[in-house]
Amino acid sequence: MRLSLGPIQYFWPRDQVFAFYDDIATLPVDIVYLGETVCAKRRLLRLDDWLALAASLASAGKQVVLSTLTLIEADAELRQLRRVCEQDDWLVEANDFAALQILTSRQRPFVAGPFLNLYNAASLCVLQGMGLQRWVVPLELGRAALSDILAALDERPQTELFGFGHLPLAWSARCFAARAHGLPKDDCRFVCMDHPEGIPVHSQDGQRLFTINGIQTQSGAVHDLAQDIAHILSAGVDILRISPQARGTPETVRRFRAAIDAGETVAVGPEACNGYWHGGAGMDRLSS
Hints:
- By secondary structure, the chain is an alpha/beta fold.
- It is built from nine helices and eleven strands.
- The protein has one domain: TIM Barrel (Alpha-Beta Barrel), CATH 3.20.20.
- Strands 1-2-3-4-5-6-7-11 form an eight-stranded parallel barrel, surrounded by four helices.
- The radius of gyration is 18 Å and the shape is globular.
- The model has no long low-confidence stretch (mean pLDDT 95).
């Protein structure tokens, strides 16, 4: 099984992003997704910067995929989306159907991101005929449902599973990070840069329920499937995705690589969740 590193979900300073990928180039991760997927206002890195990073990582032996925005709200964002989808050097992960339309109209192979809501074999078959090479399993799809889908396919695309990180649950036209600081979205002052791992949201009894990341709502707990490695290996999953965190990503990559190579489960933190994989509530931590 291969390991992938998903796109950075948070807003980090430019120098931090470049230093992060310098480290990633030396780690045992096979596929790296690059690009802004959350908020179009996060423009410290332009497309040319992402392309330069792509070339550098490819020279280090990584397969590079460019990821697209998940929520398109303006003409300028659509123009940027076209630039990503119309370049010919790198595979593209489509995170909304605007990207899918551009890629299929150009007869380009593509990765179907986890937010295209592909929940059955018939949908996958249609997209395979349009150029789908790989799909990232929707986050709430569990092991049993995934097995049923894969069993119904005559020809399976590469299957990628979100294995570690705060689960990206929803997007909004409003910016919750700006609102938390008493600012309007149009004058957000990029306050999400002050929160490199998001803003925790707790219930009245102190439980961390969600994480706010600009216009994105994430899970409160970190989704961690390290203790489920043995079952994932037998479920038809080809690639396991790690979502970058501001701290500890190299250690996470090494931990998952060692677990996969050994074919064994490993311990996870007490606050981790894995409920979706077991068909339960995503915030739960369940045993196989």
